[in-house]
Structure formats: structure tokens, C-alpha cells
Design brief:
Radius of gyration: 17 Å
Bound molecules: zinc ion
Oligomer: single chain
CATH class: Alpha Beta
Length: 216
């Protein structure tokens, strides 16, 4: 896809994140690959909902050096670089501060993807990385063990990281998880505890149905 279209898609996703309350003010950062060795990323300190396509920063995906764009790249650029370096299949990364998912990490409650079939099928395991100081090398180090095998990671006391084949897909994965977190929260209110996960048998049936659907 042409760089101009990618800039437009990234900005659309940023507005959506702000409109849905998944980030506040200048929080969060979004990036996508451009060709084999470049990426676009949101600039530092700017309100996500107010970004224009030309505000995005074009960087080298290996070194993180700025190729084009005014101002600095996001302070979490190292986290994005690490994902692209470890996962050639990933085209876009969304880091946000979704309130309920983040609250789960504060309460010390792991996100159990095995509870809701749609989440299990479309995203799979969602681990929580231990707390790390935002904006430092500690953060990519904390998420590093999970990148190769997951499409979504929660970061303790901080927020979420979702990966995708496009900014739109990474954003939809985040929306789906935050929506699921609401469902789990309501269940907890109703019965005073978290719902039980699907059985091993039901999960195996889901995986089998998914395998058949994708090979049909
Ligand atoms: Zn953050």
C-alpha cells in the first residue's frame, strides 16, 4: 500500500482510539510498516485525535533513526522496533491505555482468553508483562518474551499492546479485548467472582472448527 494511504489509515485509527476512550490526550502510540525497512509512528507529546497524516514520523525499522518528519518520534519507539524485528508477519502495532484492561492488571487479575470463544479464536492467549518503567529500555525487555507467540500483551500498571496485519486489525483486536474485559467485569459484579474458562474439550473443539474453516 502506498505511504500516503498508510498515513491516512494510521491517523484514522488514532482518532478512533481517542473517540473510544482507549487513550487520553497524548497517551499511547501507533505504528505501521512501510516497505521492508521503514515504519511510520506517531510523534511524541501530541493529542492522538488531532494528528494529521503529515504529522507522522518516518523511521528506519532497524535503527529507529528518523528519515522524515518534524519533532520527535514516540518515546516508546523501542517497543515498536522490537516487535517488527521479531515478527516479520506483523504490519502494525497499537499501544493504548484501555481503562478496564489496565484495571485488571492493577487488580492482579490475569486476562483469561479461554473464557470467551470469540476472543480465544481471534486473539488467543493474552499474557500480562510485569511492570516496567514507561519510555525506557525496561519496557521492551518486559514484553520481549511474549512477542513471538502472542497477538496481544497487557502491561502491568500501564496498558496494552496489540499487533496486526494493519493498523485497523491491531485496533480491532484492542477494541475486542476491552469489550471482553467489560463482559468479565459485569460477570464479576453479578456473581462475585470471575467466570470459569471453557473446558479443555470445548477449546479443542473451537480450535478444530477454526482449522476446518481456514482450510476450507
Ligand atoms: Zn503508554
Amino acid at each position: 500500500m502506498h505511504e500516503t494511504r498508510k498515513r491516512e489509515e494510521l491517523v484514522r485509527v488514532c482518532r478512533h482510539l481517542q473517540d473510544r476512550g482507549l487513550v487520553a490526550a497524548s497517551d499511547g502510540n501507533v505504528s505501521c510498516r512501510v516497505g521492508s525497512d521503514r515504519m511510520l509512528i506517531t510523534p511524541s507529546g501530541r493529542r492522538k485525535g488531532g494528528l494529521e497524516p503529515l504529522d507522522l514520523i518516518l523511521c528506519d525499522v532497524n535503527e529507529g533513526t528518523i528519515v522524515a518528519g518534524r519533532g520527535g518520534a514516540s518515546s516508546e519507539i523501542r517497543m515498536h522496533l522490537l516487535v517488527y524485528q521479531q515478527r516479520v508477519d506483523v504490519q502494525a502495532v497499537v499501544h493504548a491505555h484501555p481503562p478496564l484492561l489496565t484495571a485488571l492488571t492493577l487488580a492482579g487479575i490475569p486476562f483469561a482468553a479461554e473464557i470467551l470463544p470469540e476472543v480465544w479464536l481471534s486473539i488467543g492467549q493474552v499474557p500480562t508483562a510485569p511492570y516496567a518503567t514507561p519510555g525506557t529500555q525496561q519496557l521492551p525487555a518486559a514484553i520481549s518474551p511474549f512477542i513471538k507467540s502472542c497477538q496481544a500483551i497487557l502491561m502491568e500498571r500501564h496498558g496494552s499492546l496489540t499487533l496486526g496485519s494493519s493498523p485497523e486489525q491491531a485496533c480491532m483486536r484492542l477494541e475486542k479485548l476491552e469489550h471482553a474485559a467489560h463482559t468479565l467485569f459485569y460477570c464479576h459484579l453479578l456473581q462475585g467472582k470471575m467466570p470459569r474458562p471453557l473446558s479443555e474439550r470445548d477449546l479443542a473443539r473451537l480450535d478444530e472448527a477454526h482449522r476446518k474453516a481456514s482450510s476450507a
